[in-house]
Specification:
The chain has helices at 2-21, 57-60, 64-76, 78-100, 121-127, 159-225, 231-265, 296-299, 301-322, 367-434, 440-475; strands at 104-115, 130-132, 135-136, 140-154, 327-338, 351-360. A hairpin with a 2-residue loop joins strand 2 (130-132) and strand 3 (135-136). It is built from 11 helices and 6 strands.
């Protein structure tokens, strides 16, 4: 009776210690911060739910040369292929986490020699044991065994299952990260392509301007021979021809850089990029339908990625908290053991089996667990801010691009009027110069102004095409 009472007291003390160890310190207060999913109701007072982001990139970019480049990049781009392998790594992590809350079973065997001191309980027992009649236990005893051994941590607090859910959320976040990378690759190739055809047009204008200036220089030389102008006029026009020719080589270098940027994105070594530059000035920006801002939460891969990372961070807090609670581990074995391998098959005498369980929890020195819990809590708060920052950035990007579309449209119209006016002024200045009613500097400055205005007109058209690409990306298009 006394013995049972002592046993009960020990169990009570053990239970109290486990309860104490399972308590989370009162000083560790979890800061609950929920993410805000608020976005304004509309973009620029538009409430049409039609969204250009739903358009697949093959329908949005109708230039066949551009579409071919994008398609090649989605197969060969090295950064994208690296990301695909990261997704596979994240997928494998799910399997690893799942395996942690399932039983571990190993199969194996071994052999060895053992000498036990006679002054131990086992040695004293062996000394009085006869293996065979008249034969005692040898001092050096062989040992051979073969069997299956199992261990299992019972997931009482769902720590291991939550860890698997974290791996799933991180895997899905990596998929969204890949989608966001695709949108950026599509946009970068499109922007580089429009830059390339714009440079082609600038080069063509420069070459034509060189011809015009050369003809003008010829006229100036004739006027100089007729003593109507001085050598100064000839030299000024020669300098302008050289200046324009130097611009030609500058543009050619920019074309090379733009081509190689595209070659890098499509995963190929430098070669000529097939393109149609003849109709660049005829390109008309497509109509962009922004939809409503709440659609960004579903269309933008970076927002969905931030949301999944936030989900994983919240689950990490639960996993870290479960470390304060006691864990239950079970162990079992079933096999054969004998001092002679020939006796392993001697059943049931050689059969061995065991079943054991242990329940243990942290009691003293929880510093490491506390630090992990604090870090998980801070990372969860950090993930909330990151999500809200991503949503805010997405909305501002769209708002900026929409404003830019409107302003660039007006800018292009004014630039086009300027080019037409200056083109007419060049013809007038030459006629006036031939009739000695205008100075040669007026001809020179007019030629310079018309070149600059035509170059600016092309750059404005390029910016118009770029802002349409960037708006499409900002709305969440290009990855589907």
């Amino acid at each position: 009776m006394m013995k049972n009472k002592k046993t009960n007291n020990k169990l009570i003390i053990f239970g109290i210690l486990l309860l104490i160890s399972a308590c989370v310190p009162k000083s560790l207060v979890l800061i609950n911060k929920n993410e805000s999913k608020y976005v304004p109701e509309r973009f620029n007072n538009a409430q049409d739910s039609t969204n250009t982001a739903k358009t697949v990139w093959k329908d949005y970019f109708t230039d066949p040369n551009l579409a071919a480049l994008i398609d090649t990049a989605l197969h060969n781009n090295q950064e994208l292929n690296i990301t695909l392998q990261e997704i596979e790594i994240a997928r494998n992590e799910i399997g690893a986490r799942k395996g942690e809350y399932l039983p571990f079973v190993t199969l194996g065997g071994g052999a060895g020699l053992e000498k036990v001191s006679r002054y131990t309980s086992q040695g004293a027992s062996d000394a009085s044991t006869e293996i065979k009649p008249g034969t005692g236990t040898p001092e050096v005893l062989p040992n051979t065994y073969f069997g299956a051994f199992a261990s299992w941590e019972v997931d009482i607090w769902h720590k291991l299952r939550n860890a698997r859910k974290v791996a799933v959320a991180n895997y899905l976040a990596s998929v969204e990260g890949k989608n966001f990378l695709v949108t950026n690759i599509v946009a970068e190739i499109a922007n580089s392509y429009y830059e390339l055809v714009a440079l082609d047009n600038e080069l063509d204008i420069i070459k034509k301007n060189i011809v015009v200036l050369t003809n003008a220089l010829s006229i100036i030389r004739q006027e100089k021979d007729a003593a109507k102008v001085t050598e100064l006029a000839v030299r000024r026009f020669e300098a302008e021809v050289y200046k324009t020719q130097s611009l030609q080589y500058d543009i050619q270098q920019k074309i090379t850089v733009a081509e190689n940027r595209i070659n890098f994105l499509v995963g190929s070594f430098p070669h000529h990029i097939q393109r149609n530059s003849q109709r660049f000035n005829e390109l008309m920006p497509n109509k962009v339908y922004t939809g409503i801002p709440t659609q960004l939460l579903q269309n933008r891969p970076d927002i969905r990625q931030a949301e999944l990372k936030l989900e994983a961070a919240k689950l990490d807090v639960s996993v870290a908290k479960a470390n304060f609670y006691p864990s239950l581990r079970l162990g079992a074995s079933l096999g054969f053991r004998a001092y002679n391998p020939l006796y392993l098959a001697n059943l049931p005498v050689s059969l061995i089996s065991s079943l054991a369980g242990d329940l243990a929890g942290p009691l003293i020195n929880k510093n490491a667990i506390i630090a992990m819990y604090k870090n998980a809590n801070s990372k969860q708060i950090q993930a909330v801010y990151d999500y809200e920052k991503t949503v805010l950035n997405a909305y501002i990007e769209v708002a900026n691009h929409l404003s830019n579309i409107d302003n660039l449209g007006k800018n292009y119209e004014m630039k086009n009027n300027q080019v037409q006016a200056l083109t007419q002024s060049t013809e007038i200045s030459l006629k006036l110069f031939k009739s000695a009613r205008a100075d040669y500097m007026e001809v020179l400055l007019t030629q310079r102004d018309v070149l600059e205005s035509r170059m600016e007109l092309i750059e404005t058209r390029m910016k118009q095409m770029n802002v349409l690409v960037n708006t499409y990306r900002a709305l969440g298009g290009g990855w589907n």
